[in-house]
Each structure stands twice: as structure tokens, then as C-alpha cells.
């Protein structure tokens, strides 16, 4: 991953019924997720979230995905790679290690994964949860398919982690996560469809058309709605479409916002600033795609995930 992984202007919700305890000690629930959520090391530590890392292979080299991954020059290498990198979900053993860490913090575990439609992460987590029945018999593990990706997954994970730190029950956190998974929306524009095509998700003719007419497709990934929602002929037009979608959905509501990018920090920072000025944000922060997601979208993506109270 290029650039820094800092999260400027990370703002926590302020209208909580009870504050997060400064020293929560052992609690009812601990949250585990995968590195596709692209949360920074600082956010993970603050919310005591455990992560199972994806893997990315370029040529004959395999690298660990995530905030502590070893692929700092990922997007530079991606631009010059002759073949698309291959990616793999966390294996059951990686999930088990995360579960063991989480079991030191809480009496039960809620594991929230990348959408099962995009990755084998959910299935591998389910296998690990079954193994945990014998290896961690006193710590039940519940696995939840976020049905989201990247920033949407991150927002679900963060809300769950805040509830866990406040001492909420597993049933309450699970219900809340399910509710948000049905509300959260992700919209983003791509610089090119080339990387999506190389992942086998769009035909070559679509790549040819977007490149010929300089189209920057605006895509949506939401439960029940996946695909292109706009085809602006410039990045500035695509940027304006993101603003229109987010403000149209969130004006008058307390907004939870995660602005995302894949090696396009300047535009992402501008989007964060504009949305922060135009919306009533309960939380707003910036994430850069870790290699697992960036390998499939390519560099240049700018997007936003959000839900409103």
C-alpha cells in the first residue's frame, strides 16, 4: 500500500447512551474481522478489534494484507504488473489465531467478514468457528456475513466494536450489525475497468468503451443493488456524482461516513472535507484500500460508504 495509512479527522459518535469504559477489562463480546475492512492499526487498537489477514501474491512472492502488511509499494507494482495479482482469503488457521487473541478479551466472539459473494473469507471463518468449539470450548464464536465490502464492512465492524466496549450482549450486537448491513451503501468511481475485467467480472468490450470515451464508471455495492449507476466522462463528474448520492441520502440525518481510495488520496481528502461540511457527521474517516481490495479495483478508485441514523 502506498502513502501513509493515517486516518485524518476520525470522529466518533457522540450521542451514545453510555460512554465506552476507559478500561473495559474482560467483557461479553470481542469483535474479529478480516483485513478487507482496511481499518488502520490505530483504529483497530483503540477498538480492540482482532484481524485475520488476506494474502496477495505477485509473481512468486506472497505478501500479508492489512495495516501491518509488507507491500508498501503495492500500487506502484500493480501499475507495472503484466499479470493481475492473485488474492486469497484468510485460511481457517489465520481465523483461529484471531479467535484465540479475542478469547483473551471476552466471553464470546462476533466475527464479521467480507461479503460471501466476493470472497471465501466467510466460509473459512465458519470452518474456524467449528474448530473453535473444541479448541476454545468456553468462548462461543458467531460468524456474520457483512454482505458488504471495504468501507461498508468497516462501518459495521466499528459500530459493533463500540457496542462491545460498552458491554452490550452478543445478541444485541449481532442484531445491530445485521440492521446496519441492510442500510449501509457503497458508491465509488473507478479510473478504469481494466482491473475488474482482469478479475473476470466485466467483458473486454466494456473496458474498451470506457477507455475510448474516458468514462469513469460510478459503481454501487449495496445489498440488493450491485452494478454501475453512472458513467460520467471525467473524474470531476464522477466525484460530483458521489457527492450527490451521499448528500441526497444523508441530508437531515446523523451520518456515519467512510471515505475510501486506492492510491488517490488527494481526491479522497477533498471528498471527506466536502461531505464533512455538508452533512451532520456522527463519524467520518478516511481509509485506503489494502492490497486485497486494490488488486481487484486497480489504482485511482475513490468511494464512500455510509449509513444514516
Concise structural overview:
The protein is an alpha/beta fold. It has eleven helices and 13 strands.
Question: What does this 3D model show about the protein?
Answer:
The strands form three sheets. A six-stranded mixed β-sheet has the order 10-9-8-13-11-12, with helices on both faces. It has a four-stranded parallel β-sheet with strand order 2-1-6-7, with helices on both faces. The chain contains eleven helices and 13 strands. With 309 residues, the protein is α/β, with parallel strands linked by helices. The chain has helices at residues 41-46, 74-80, 92-103, 121-135, 151-165, 170-183, 194-198, 204-212, 235-250, 265-278, 291-297, and strands at residues 27-34, 50-52, 55-58, 61-64, 86-88, 106-113, 141-145, 185-189, 218-222, 225-230, 254-261, 280-288, 302-308. Helix 3 crosses helix 4 (121-135) and helix 5 packs antiparallel against helix 6. It is globular and about 55 Å long. The longest helix has 16 residues, at 235-250.
Amino acid at each position: 500500500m502506498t502513502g501513509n495509512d493515517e486516518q485524518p479527522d476520525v470522529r466518533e459518535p457522540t450521542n451514545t447512551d453510555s460512554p465506552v469504559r476507559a478500561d473495559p477489562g474482560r467483557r461479553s463480546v470481542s469483535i474479529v474481522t478480516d483485513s478487507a475492512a482496511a481499518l488502520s492499526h490505530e483504529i483497530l487498537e483503540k477498538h480492540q478489534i482482532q484481524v485475520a489477514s488476506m494474502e496477495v501474491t505477485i509473481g512468486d512472492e506472497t505478501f500479508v494484507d492489512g495495516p501491518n502488511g509488507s507491500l508498501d509499494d503495492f500500487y506502484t507494482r500493480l501499475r507495472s504488473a503484466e499479470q493481475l495479482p492473485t488474492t486469497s482469503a484468510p485460511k481457517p488457521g489465520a481465523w483461529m489465531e484471531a479467535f484465540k487473541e479475542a478469547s483473551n478479551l471476552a466471553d464470546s466472539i462476533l466475527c464479521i467478514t467480507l461479503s460471501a459473494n466476493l470472497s471465501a473469507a466467510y466460509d473459512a471463518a465458519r470452518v474456524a468457528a467449528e474448530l473453535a468449539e473444541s479448541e476454545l470450548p468456553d468462548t462461543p464464536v458467531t460468524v456474520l456475513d457483512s454482505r458488504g465490502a471495504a468501507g461498508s464492512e468497516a462501518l459495521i465492524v466499528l459500530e459493533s466494536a463500540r457496542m462491545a466496549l460498552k458491554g452490550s450482549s452478543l445478541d444485541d450486537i449481532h442484531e445491530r450489525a445485521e440492521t446496519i448491513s441492510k442500510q449501509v451503501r457503497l458508491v465509488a468511481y473507478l479510473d478504469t475497468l481494466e482491473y475488474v475485467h482482469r478479475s473476470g467480472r466485466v467483458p473486454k468490450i466494456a473496458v474498451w468503451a470506457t477507455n475510448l470515451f474516458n468514462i469513469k464508471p460510478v459503481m454501487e455495492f449495496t445489498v440488493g443493488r450491485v452494478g454501475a449507476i453512472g458513467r460520467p466522462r471525467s473524474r470531476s463528474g464522477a466525484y460530483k456524482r458521489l457527492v450527490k448520492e451521499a448528500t441526497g441520502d444523508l441530508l437531515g440525518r446523523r451520518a456515519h461516513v467512510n471515505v475510501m481510495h486506492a492510491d488517490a488520496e488527494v481526491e479522497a481528502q477533498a471528498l471527506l472535507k466536502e461531505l464533512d461540511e455538508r452533512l451532520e457527521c456522527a463519524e467520518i474517516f478516511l481509509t485506503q484500500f489494502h492490497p486485497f481490495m486494490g488488486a481487484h479495483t486497480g489504482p485511482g478508485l475513490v468511494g464512500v460508504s455510509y449509513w444514516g441514523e
